[in-house]
Amino acid sequence: MKLPDYLYGFQAEDTEALLAQPKRLLLEPMGAGKSVMCVAAVEALDAFTIVIVCPAVMCTDWGDKFRKFGRNSYTYQMDGVGRRVIAVSFESVNTPERRARLLAHVKSIDVLILDEAQRLKNPEAQVVASIYGTEADGTGLVALAKRVWVVSGTLCPNHWGELYTHLRACFPERLPIVAGKPMSHSEFVDRFCQWETTRYGVRVTGNKEPEVLRNLLKGISIYRGRADVDKLLPKLNVSTVRLPRDAIDRYVYHDLSKLPEFEALRLATIDMEAGKLPSIDDPNLARARHALGDMKAPAVADYVRELLADPDNRVLVFAHHRSVLRRMAVELVDIEPNVGVIDGFTPQRDRDVLVQGFQEKRSRLLVLGISTAREGLTLTAANRVVMAEASWTPSHNDQAIHRAFRIGQQRPVFAEYVCIAETLDEAVMRVCARKSGLLSQIL
């Protein structure tokens, strides 16, 4: 079947590559249109049973993509007849019992699409056992599929050891043989990662042997750098806005001072010397980040208020903690009455309404949780992205920014990390800079 002409040139090339082998790693950058390529490839195969495992927030979007770009007619229920597109969340198949409910309706799978597959990086996780099999040996859901497409723009967000489960389950022949069988996870991490033992366990500190790993991935992965996507888009500008230390909310600071652990929080947040970072395993670190997020929320809201003073600006604000999200929404409701908040407590139906309202320009502001909304949403009505809190994992920050900067965007996008000078904020940014670009180094 001829590929549809709605594909861009690089998308058509990579769709053909996706069809060339039964199993593939589709590792295009964020915003490249990976789901559209998958729809085109499914249509070329004339597949009848397509199962997509993805984050819950993306299940509706996959159905929308097939309705919009598919030329065949599909049903979207497990017990449907004819051509079926079944999109389920990772959580809905993360145990043998839950997987069995799916398999009661699906005896074989023509195409299994694992979207945002970086969620399958831990070989000890229940969801990995359910989809990839025990110890990722390929005996799970993948065993029923004629084709498996592992889809992600950030397959190894923290270190190269996170590639192991995908290789072991789908491409075991690519792994070096140790004692007569494909190497174990610990052997893989030892081979390709630098690590150290701390009182909290093993911590990966770097990567090694990129050429060997590059050869392992050659021929099974489809990858392009950002240049092929970015040339189709307006410019992305990423910068850091440093607010002075006196921008923190002193009322919140005063409230925190009453807590028994305040001294540890104070030392880890406000009085941290520039360049000095507590151990990432320090039990006070997570609380310190939360405290700093609460203390900086009003200052970030003031900055967003300045952006909204320009009626042409449409703004996405990302943060990690729910209290920070809610505080900023309350601070900004006077300038944007239709402000929406999407976090882990937002029902799926409400998320869809908020996204649609923003895309249709009935609202100029969305406040979003990084862990909840960094995946699966298209928010190209935005031209400003404000990172009120940054994730330790740089790919999570990139995913958030690329909700706006993706195919369909018509305006330049300005993304800004808002930091309080000489605090934990700046240390987080240094960690992110060190961990960026892991996948690009081996593909």
- Number of contiguous helices: 17
CATH class wording of the largest domain: Alpha Beta
| Tally of DSSP β-strands | 16
Strand content: 15-25%
Low-pLDDT residue spans:
none
In which order are the strands of the major sheet placed?
Answer: 3-2-4-5-1-10
The number of domains:
2
What overall geometry do the principal axes of the alpha carbons give?
globular
Radius of gyration: 22 Å
Would you identify the CATH architecture of the largest domain? 3-Layer(aba) Sandwich
The percentage helix is 25-40%
Distance between the termini: 30 Å
Superfamily (CATH H level) name of the largest domain? Tandem AAA-ATPase domain
Stated plainly, the CATH topology of the largest domain is called Rossmann fold
Question: What about the largest sheet?
Answer: 6 strands, parallel
Structural class: alpha/beta
- Mean pLDDT across residues: 88
Describe the structure.
The chain has 443 residues and is an alpha/beta fold. It folds into 2 domains: 9-225, Rossmann fold (3-Layer(aba) Sandwich), CATH 3.40.50.10810; 233-435, Rossmann fold, CATH 3.40.50.300. It is built from 17 helices and 16 strands. It has helices at 9-19, 34-45, 59-69, 96-103, 126-132, 164-170, 185-192, 210-217, 226-230, 250-256, 262-269, 283-308, 322-332, 348-359, 370-373, 394-401, 424-435, and strands at 23-26, 49-54, 84-89, 109-115, 145-151, 177-178, 181-182, 193-198, 201-207, 221-222, 236-243, 315-319, 340-342, 365-369, 384-387, 413-420. The strands form 4 sheets. The chain has a 6-stranded parallel beta sheet. Helix 3 links the parallel strand 2 and strand 3. Helix 1 crosses helix 2 (34-45) and helix 12 packs parallel to helix 13.
